[in-house]
Amino acid sequence: MINAIKRLLPPALKQLARQWLGRPETRLHPDWADLAAIGPVKEPHVILDIGAHHGWFFHCWQDWCPQAQVHAFEPYPESFEATRANYGSDPSVRLNQVGVGDTAGELIFNVFGESKVSNSFLAPEAQAWDTLRYHTGKLTQIKVPVTTVDAYVAEHGLRHIYLAKIDVQGYELHVLRGAERSLPIIDHIFVEAGIERLYKDAPRFTDVFEFLTARGFHLAGMRAWHRGNHVLMETDMLFRRNDLAPPVDESVIKVMGTVG
User: Fold this and answer.
1) Nearest CA among 256, 244, 172 for reference residue 209
2) Cβ partners under 8 Å of residue 8, min gap 6
3) Average per-residue pLDDT in the chain?
4) How much is the pLDDT for 1?
5) How many H-runs (helices) and E-runs (strands) does the chain carry?
6) What is the pLDDT at residue 145?
7) Separation of alpha carbons 33 and 195, rounded Å
8) Contact 95, 88 (CB under 8 A)
9) Is the dihedral of CA 32, 35, 41, 44 positive or negative?
């Protein structure tokens, strides 16, 4: 109930409530700690949430960066309706019931009965899921509309995108290929990619790394996940466009980071 009320409060009222309670005006949710290096952003800016599900990511981003204008994409009707119920009246959020890939049109979308957050345009790799003791439940299929980042950017006249978040269950390279012309106006890309291949023909995180580094981005942050046995299965990677990076500070001898 408390979280539902928080979702319904406009950013300005959240800030007033925090001031009254003596708390910081904005807050980065611990789920997204890897983004600390690129915010908070106090000026108006645009983010893309590709694979929005119920809108939790952009909700947390706006909690931290209230000036964000969100363009969210979610093809699964049930998830889209849940997102619309919570955020459909928010003028700072544009919701799009559409998938994102490398070609506009229609595609078959796989819906997992026991793990809706795992829905994908790709079929599950059964052996990998069995090994991880992770269950998809009954698999059904629906047809959904698909656009590309390039087509959407052109249609809506977007000139600058501060952050593109991509969480599409193995479809990452398709999304990125459909964003080739838009990459020069995207500052940061936050993308989930597999270490274990959970979907047929899905790229591994190294494939995503090679694609983006070949197109003018560098890896700025990384966090990996496991299911309690320390066998890493997925990673969140934060990429920054090369021409945004400051010169190397030669006074810094070494910086240590932890993955996992």
Assistant:
1) 172
2) 86
3) 89
4) 46
5) 8, 10
6) 98
7) 20
8) yes
9) negative
Question: Hey, what are 106's tokens?
Answer: 């229609």
Structure token pair of residue 17? 């409530």
Phi-psi region of 230 (alpha: psi -120 to 50; beta: other; left: phi over 0): left
User: Tokens for 174?
Assistant: 């398709």
* CA–CA gap between residue 130 and residue 223 (Å, rounded): 24
Q: Name the residue with tokens 């990998």.
A: 128
Question: Where do the domains of the chain lie, and which CATH numbers do they carry?
Answer: 27-244 (3.40.50.150)
CA dihedral 255, 227, 127, 111 (to 10 degrees): -100
- For residue 2, CA distances in Å to 8, 59, 180, 201 come to 10, 14, 41, 41
User: What's residue 133's pLDDT?
Assistant: 76
How far from 49 is each of 60, 74, 130, 186, CA to CA, in Å? 12, 9, 30, 13
Please compute Rg for the chain using Cα positions.
Answer: 19
Measure Cα distances from 163 to 97, 183, 187, 213, 226 in Å: 20, 11, 6, 17, 26
Distance between CA atoms of 32 and 85, rounded to whole angstroms? 24
**Residue spans of alpha helices (H) in the chain:** 2-8, 11-21, 56-64, 77-87, 126-131, 149-156, 172-177, 205-213
**What does the pLDDT look like over 125-135, one tens digit per residue?**
988 888 777 77
pLDDT of residue 45: 98
Write out the DSSP string of 117-166: GG-BSSPB-HHHHHHTT----SEEEEEEEEE-HHHHHHHHT---EEEEEE
